[in-house]
Design goal:
Layout: H1 9-38, H2 43-53, H3 56-79, H4 83-119, H5 123-155, H6 160-181, H7 192-216, H8 232-263, H9 268-284, H10 286-304, H11 308-335, H12 337-341, H13 348-361, H14 365-381, H15 385-406, H16 413-445
């Protein structure tokens, strides 16, 4: 356990953010490695995997419910020096993860086909997406266990073990991808099925490694069979904090679905270009997301310890650091976005769509970094409804105009990208206002310091 209520806030932020960034970078490589080899199978395979991969946002939404609730409660318990409550939350999060694994298998296999047929530009794209999902679903399900254990460690101020596991599993995925997708060494290529299988095997290995770590090395939060019985009060606490962030990812899933529907008439090349561009953008967002992920346990422990001045200081450092990083990445995307895309495809129309997307969408990188930091602060404060409000507002201000524009003469893809930039800016302003209001409310409710 690392006490984050003492010492330099900025050093704590960097110490947490660095391993989180490394782990998230390697986590994103799961998708990028698969995409690299899948791109060799043609536009239909790229579009199919990209479309199917968006179902991952539903899994991410559900894992956010579990992860954010677990992390926030454990961080606040650590700040209060309440180890018993931290252990109870950890073991109940494991119980929730087991239930979610079973539900993912049942619902995933029942809905994979209809989902890809609804969004695919043609039959070949839908078939590729369905095949990929069938083999990737075990990996999706096992992510609940990984998130439960990783979030518990983040809540205690420890990020390195999760980073190490992510790095090792991605390296394994990179090793398996060419063997299973392209048939290296075996001479039996599995195509998009191999992409899903490689990721599922790698995630399963990661779960085993985390189980071994908790069983042998972790001391502050540990497995306790007596606490694995259903405890509704703790489930309610986890869900109260976790459901709104899960709703944010569900909103993002709907948002991406709207984009795929709106650009569907432009064909598989447009969907493939957006798919590759959006995956590259996710990798670009990693530094700002790492800072936001570090904000939550750092500010959370100080919320639990009643150190509200350090909570404000955490946000100031995070906003400046995240904005600076994202500004540099914005400049790079305006300079040579094609360099990032050519790693995954050599198809000129696909590159043209992806490059245009990155150039325009990069105008919202700084705003998105601030939004991430605001979300991390609300997680630390234990009130995660405001970010859901701002995300839902963005969806409404984007979806309705997007569908309207798609019916107008002269409609172009770039109109969708410019609309996205405008709505992200509005979301940032709303998030800042909501955070300012929440912090003032907390400070007004805090007990006055005793007189000397």
């Amino acid at each position: 356990m690392q006490d984050l209520t003492q010492g330099s806030v900025f050093r704590h932020l960097l110490k947490l953010a660095a391993p989180i960034a490394i782990g998230m970078m390697f986590q994103t490589l799961y998708v990028l490695v698969d995409l690299y080899f899948v791109a060799r199978l043609g536009d239909a395979a790229i579009a199919g995997v990209s479309t199917a991969g968006n179902l991952q946002f539903i899994i991410m939404a559900l894992t956010q419910v579990l992860g954010v609730g677990t992390m926030a409660l454990i961080a606040q318990a650590v700040g209060r020096k309440d180890q018993a409550d931290a252990n109870l939350v950890f073991n109940q999060s494991l119980l929730i993860s087991l239930a979610c694994i079973l539900i993912t298998f049942v619902v995933g296999y029942a809905t994979a086909g209809p989902y890809t047929r609804a969004l695919g530009a043609d039959a070949a794209t839908s078939a590729a997406g369905t095949t990929y999902l069938y083999w990737f679903l075990p990996g999706m399900a096992l992510q609940f266990a990984l998130v439960a254990m990783g979030s518990a460690l983040r809540g205690t101020g420890i990020a390195k073990p999760g980073m190490i596991v992510q790095v090792l599993t991605v390296l394994l995925n990179a090793l398996l991808a060419p063997i299973l997708i392209a048939g290296w060494l075996t001479g039996h290529p599995l195509g998009v099925a191999g992409a899903g299988l490689a990721s599922s095997i790698s995630i399963a290995v990661g779960v085993v490694m985390m189980i071994l770590y908790f069983g042998r090395l972790e001391k502050y939060v540990r497995y306790d069979a007596a606490q694995l019985r259903l405890h509704f009060a703790t489930w309610k606490r986890i869900l109260r904090i976790g459901l709104p962030p899960g709703g944010e990812f569900a909103v993002l899933f709907v948002f991406l679905g709207v984009i795929y529907l709106v650009i569907r008439p432009f064909g598989a090349e447009a969907q493939a270009g957006f798919g590759v561009g959006s995956r590259v953008m996710q990798a670009i967002f990693l530094p700002a997301m790492a800072v936001a992920f570090a904000v939550a346990p750092l500010a959370g422990q100080n919320v639990g310890g009643g150190r509200l001045e350090r909570v404000r200081e955490t946000f100031r450092h995070a906003a400046l650091l995240g904005s600076g990083i994202m500004l540099l990445l914005t400049l790079f995307c305006h300079w040579q976005p094609e360099l990032l895309l050519r790693v995954f495809t050599s198809d000129p129309p696909v590159i043209a769509v992806g490059a245009d997307y990155l150039r325009i969408i990069s105008w919202n990188f700084v705003a998105q970094g601030i939004i991430f930091s605001c979300s991390g602060m609300f997680q630390a404060l234990g009130n995660t409804l405001p970010p859901l409000y701002s995300s839902t507002t963005r969806l409404l201000t984007f979806a309705l105009p997007a569908f309207w524009m798609s019916t107008r003469a002269g409609f172009e893809l770039r109109h969708v990208w410019y609309l996205s930039v405008a709505t992200v800016t509005l979301q940032m302003l709303l998030s800042l206002w909501l955070l300012r209001r929440e912090l003032r409310r907390r400070e007004a409710a805090a007990p006055a310091p005793a007189a000397a």
